[in-house]
Design goal:
7 helices, 4-stranded antiparallel sheet, alpha+beta
Length: about 170
Protein backbone atom coordinates (compact mmCIF):
# COMPACT_ATOMS: atom_id res chain seq x y z
CA UNK A 1 0.00 0.00 0.00
CA UNK A 2 1.29 3.44 -0.91
CA UNK A 3 1.08 6.50 1.31
CA UNK A 4 0.95 10.09 0.09
CA UNK A 5 1.98 12.79 2.56
CA UNK A 6 1.45 16.52 2.09
CA UNK A 7 2.97 18.90 4.65
CA UNK A 8 2.52 22.58 5.33
CA UNK A 9 3.58 24.81 8.20
CA UNK A 10 2.00 27.78 9.91
CA UNK A 11 2.45 29.97 12.96
CA UNK A 12 -0.32 30.88 15.32
CA UNK A 13 -0.89 32.13 18.84
CA UNK A 14 -2.26 30.17 21.75
CA UNK A 15 -2.31 30.17 25.51
CA UNK A 16 -5.03 31.01 27.96
CA UNK A 17 -3.16 33.65 29.91
CA UNK A 18 0.35 33.83 28.48
CA UNK A 19 -0.14 34.02 24.73
CA UNK A 20 2.74 32.75 22.66
CA UNK A 21 3.41 32.11 19.00
CA UNK A 22 4.02 28.48 18.01
CA UNK A 23 5.13 27.04 14.68
CA UNK A 24 3.11 23.99 13.62
CA UNK A 25 3.59 21.48 10.84
CA UNK A 26 0.51 19.74 9.51
CA UNK A 27 0.97 16.57 7.47
CA UNK A 28 -2.02 14.86 5.89
CA UNK A 29 -1.84 11.26 4.68
CA UNK A 30 -3.76 9.37 2.02
CA UNK A 31 -3.21 5.62 1.76
CA UNK A 32 -4.13 3.19 -0.97
CA UNK A 33 -3.16 1.40 -4.11
CA UNK A 34 -1.47 3.28 -6.90
CA UNK A 35 -3.98 3.92 -9.68
CA UNK A 36 -3.12 5.81 -12.85
CA UNK A 37 0.22 6.80 -11.32
CA UNK A 38 -1.28 8.31 -8.14
CA UNK A 39 -2.08 7.02 -4.65
CA UNK A 40 -5.79 6.09 -4.82
CA UNK A 41 -5.81 7.76 -8.24
CA UNK A 42 -5.85 11.11 -6.44
CA UNK A 43 -3.98 14.07 -7.92
CA UNK A 44 -2.25 15.74 -4.97
CA UNK A 45 -2.62 19.32 -6.28
CA UNK A 46 -6.31 19.82 -5.29
CA UNK A 47 -5.58 18.23 -1.90
CA UNK A 48 -2.59 20.54 -1.34
CA UNK A 49 -4.73 23.55 -2.30
CA UNK A 50 -7.44 22.46 0.14
CA UNK A 51 -4.85 22.05 2.91
CA UNK A 52 -3.47 25.52 2.16
CA UNK A 53 -7.00 26.97 2.54
CA UNK A 54 -7.30 25.35 5.97
CA UNK A 55 -3.80 26.52 6.97
CA UNK A 56 -4.60 30.08 5.89
CA UNK A 57 -7.64 30.04 8.20
CA UNK A 58 -5.27 29.28 11.11
CA UNK A 59 -2.14 31.26 10.16
CA UNK A 60 -1.45 34.12 12.57
CA UNK A 61 -4.72 33.60 14.44
CA UNK A 62 -5.42 32.97 18.12
CA UNK A 63 -6.16 29.23 17.94
CA UNK A 64 -8.20 28.99 21.15
CA UNK A 65 -10.92 30.98 19.36
CA UNK A 66 -10.92 28.50 16.48
CA UNK A 67 -10.32 24.99 17.86
CA UNK A 68 -11.06 25.54 21.55
CA UNK A 69 -8.27 24.74 23.96
CA UNK A 70 -5.31 24.57 21.63
CA UNK A 71 -3.92 21.07 21.68
CA UNK A 72 -2.35 19.29 18.76
CA UNK A 73 -5.24 16.82 19.01
CA UNK A 74 -7.82 19.59 18.57
CA UNK A 75 -5.89 21.06 15.64
CA UNK A 76 -5.74 17.61 14.03
CA UNK A 77 -9.48 17.07 14.42
CA UNK A 78 -10.16 20.53 13.00
CA UNK A 79 -8.01 19.81 9.93
CA UNK A 80 -9.66 16.40 9.42
CA UNK A 81 -13.11 17.95 9.61
CA UNK A 82 -12.27 20.78 7.24
CA UNK A 83 -10.90 18.27 4.71
CA UNK A 84 -13.62 15.65 5.22
CA UNK A 85 -14.44 15.45 1.49
CA UNK A 86 -10.99 13.94 0.85
CA UNK A 87 -9.97 10.34 1.70
CA UNK A 88 -7.48 11.33 4.41
CA UNK A 89 -6.39 8.46 6.63
CA UNK A 90 -4.39 10.47 9.16
CA UNK A 91 -3.24 13.95 10.14
CA UNK A 92 0.02 14.50 12.01
CA UNK A 93 0.43 17.76 13.89
CA UNK A 94 3.89 18.76 15.08
CA UNK A 95 4.32 21.75 17.30
CA UNK A 96 5.02 22.94 20.80
CA UNK A 97 7.57 20.18 21.28
CA UNK A 98 5.52 17.12 20.34
CA UNK A 99 3.73 15.28 17.55
CA UNK A 100 0.21 13.89 17.52
CA UNK A 101 -1.37 11.61 14.95
CA UNK A 102 -5.14 11.84 14.54
CA UNK A 103 -6.85 9.19 12.43
CA UNK A 104 -10.02 9.48 10.40
CA UNK A 105 -11.60 6.95 12.78
CA UNK A 106 -11.08 9.45 15.65
CA UNK A 107 -13.74 11.84 14.39
CA UNK A 108 -17.49 11.63 13.97
CA UNK A 109 -18.27 14.38 11.49
CA UNK A 110 -21.99 14.30 12.33
CA UNK A 111 -21.36 15.65 15.84
CA UNK A 112 -18.06 17.45 15.32
CA UNK A 113 -19.59 20.95 15.08
CA UNK A 114 -21.22 20.61 18.51
CA UNK A 115 -17.97 19.28 20.00
CA UNK A 116 -15.98 22.12 18.45
CA UNK A 117 -18.36 24.71 19.90
CA UNK A 118 -18.16 22.97 23.28
CA UNK A 119 -14.35 23.15 23.23
CA UNK A 120 -14.47 26.83 22.29
CA UNK A 121 -16.86 27.49 25.17
CA UNK A 122 -14.60 25.61 27.60
CA UNK A 123 -11.70 27.79 26.50
CA UNK A 124 -13.77 30.95 26.94
CA UNK A 125 -14.87 29.94 30.44
CA UNK A 126 -11.27 29.16 31.39
CA UNK A 127 -10.33 32.68 30.25
CA UNK A 128 -13.14 34.21 32.39
CA UNK A 129 -15.27 35.12 29.36
CA UNK A 130 -18.34 33.54 30.87
CA UNK A 131 -21.03 35.37 28.90
CA UNK A 132 -19.31 34.48 25.63
CA UNK A 133 -18.96 30.87 26.84
CA UNK A 134 -22.71 30.70 27.55
CA UNK A 135 -23.49 31.93 24.05
CA UNK A 136 -21.14 29.46 22.36
CA UNK A 137 -22.13 26.44 24.46
CA UNK A 138 -25.78 27.25 23.76
CA UNK A 139 -24.92 27.00 20.04
CA UNK A 140 -23.41 23.58 20.76
CA UNK A 141 -26.64 22.49 22.44
CA UNK A 142 -28.62 23.81 19.47
CA UNK A 143 -26.40 21.79 17.16
CA UNK A 144 -26.75 18.59 19.25
CA UNK A 145 -29.55 18.73 21.86
CA UNK A 146 -28.46 15.35 23.28
CA UNK A 147 -24.94 16.58 24.14
CA UNK A 148 -25.01 16.20 27.94
CA UNK A 149 -21.53 17.66 28.56
CA UNK A 150 -22.63 20.89 26.88
CA UNK A 151 -25.57 21.26 29.29
CA UNK A 152 -23.22 20.62 32.19
CA UNK A 153 -20.80 23.28 30.94
CA UNK A 154 -23.60 25.81 30.48
CA UNK A 155 -24.77 25.01 34.00
CA UNK A 156 -21.25 25.65 35.30
CA UNK A 157 -21.19 28.96 33.44
CA UNK A 158 -24.55 29.98 34.91
CA UNK A 159 -23.32 28.96 38.37
CA UNK A 160 -20.25 31.18 37.90
CA UNK A 161 -22.61 34.09 37.15
CA UNK A 162 -24.70 33.11 40.22
CA UNK A 163 -27.75 32.47 38.04
CA UNK A 164 -28.84 29.54 40.18
CA UNK A 165 -32.24 28.95 38.55
CA UNK A 166 -30.69 28.74 35.06
CA UNK A 167 -27.84 26.56 36.33
CA UNK A 168 -30.28 24.07 37.85
CA UNK A 169 -32.15 23.59 34.57
CA UNK A 170 -28.90 22.57 32.86
CA UNK A 171 -27.63 20.25 35.61
Amino acid sequence: MARLSIRETFEADHGSFDTRKIAYTVAIYVEGEIKNGFVRGLDSLPLRQALLRVISSLEGKYLDNIVGRTTNEHIGLYVLHQLREYPISMVRISGDGHDVEVYSSDIDHTIYQARLLYERARSLLYRDKTDDAIEVVSEAIGSDPSFALAYNLRGRCQKTKERWDLALTDF
